[in-house]
Amino acid sequence: MGIFNNTTFAKLFFASVTSRLGTIVGMTAFTFYLLDRFSEQPAYATFAEMMYSAPTLLVFVVTGVFADTLDRQKIAYYSDVICGILSLCLLGALWIDVMPVIFLVLFIRSAVAKFFTPAEMSLVQGILTKKEYPTAAGLNQMVAGVFNLFATGLGLGAYWLLGIQGAIVFDLITFIVSALLIRSSVITEEVRMPNGARTIKDLRYTSILQDFLRGLQYIIQHKLLLTIVSGFFVIGIVNGGLTVMPLYMLKYHLTPEAYEQWTVVLGIVFGVGMIAGSIAGALLTKIWKLYTCLSFSLIMAGSFIIVSGASSNVVFFLSLSGLIAFSIPLANIAIGGWLPSIVDKRMMGRVESWITPIMMVSHTATLAIITVGFPSIISIQSLFYVCGAILLLVGVFYMILLPRLSSKFEKHQQDIVVNTDVQSNSIEPVQ
């Protein structure tokens, strides 16, 4: 917990926590609202999830470029402020009760929110040391576990007690709190603008495209990074499926009459599993190599997902869900602690801007397939089998390639000569 002695990190951390908490509670409540109102049309709930993920494909060209070019602190701050304003617009859209308008506001708000993460991650990378990166990643996983433990219950509780409008108001408050925390943080100009002071007026369409493609070039030249990023496409398929698969498993297969209550229990089980997995993962990353942690986690989680598809009762399904939740944090801690140490600080935003859309392409495509094919063509069990097998294959892929590439990268780091000429703004490619 000594990392919280860094006041700036503490403010950024809690800003991220409040922003994410509100979004999770709001989206959870909105999903239940759609399932209640359109009980015979599950496509609405899946489409709402698509409105959360699809905007990445619209803004990914500029999010990373903005984070590496403009003031990162201001980007994170204004992202929260605009999302708060759009939450008010969402309340208005719900009041007039026109579904296309509701989905449009969700889409725009999600697009604006995508600017927050690259800017916030780049700020955190700049204020921490390499030894602190795994600690910060472990904390993020602990928070994710707490979210899973309480967010579903909070979202459902807000929906039951206050209605969908009350949940959206909660969303609005969290965005305001996050914005205030970001604004009050004292961050040096070197961290906020590592590539020099520039404003949005200095940007041109051609320069944005060039900077964006420069991020792709950096990933391609960095073979270790390229291998990790390639796996994110397949992981996105699993993430897309898991956003709705457990809920559909309960509602349409295991316990149709009491799926809401069991969804809360599932959230608790998943949250406890993630918290326990975060603690175990933090210990294992000090013993094992990060690439070992990553591949082992994916193989274990993929295996449990496959088995959970054959569940015939709720208790067995919940037990397997807890094991899946226990497995996942180790991979996230490994990635979160590894990427900041192998990516140049001046390129972090652009690298992140490529990782997210790569995942979101497959994430959104998976949700689209589920929207069209479930339940008429695709069964809920087959979704679990496919997603588990994909995750298992990625784990094996990483197990074979990452050790060799990691050794080569470490050897290269011993020989590389760091160019300190900031004015040249040149990035040394890592083979």
Automatic annotation (TrEMBL):
Residues spanning the membrane: 12-35, 50-70, 82-108, 158-182, 224-250, 262-284, 291-310, 316-342, 354-377, 383-402
Primary subcellular site in the record, as a coarse category: membrane
Coiled-coil region: none
Annotated compartments: Cell membrane
SUPFAM superfamilies (UniProt xref): MFS general substrate transporter
Name assigned to this protein: MFS transporter
Topology with respect to the bilayer: Multi-pass membrane protein
Keywords: Cell membrane, Membrane, Transmembrane, Transmembrane helix, Transport
InterPro entries, sorted: MFS, MFS_trans_sf
Superkingdom as given in the UniProt entry: Bacteria
Pfam family, one: MFS_1
